[in-house]
Amino acid sequence: MTTNVIGGVIGAAKSLFKSQLDRIKRFVNEAARPGGEAFA
Questions:
Q1: Which one-letter DSSP state was computed for residue 40?
Q2: What are 6-22's pLDDT values in tens digits?
């Protein structure tokens, strides 16, 4: 039971981290493009 809870928490943290990473990457890509709207 405890192992399942820990595994679930780790899984949730991983997916949350991954989605944050994707957002950061997308923002960097927007900022790196000439005429990007990131700073508007």
A1: -
A2: 999 999 999 999 999 99
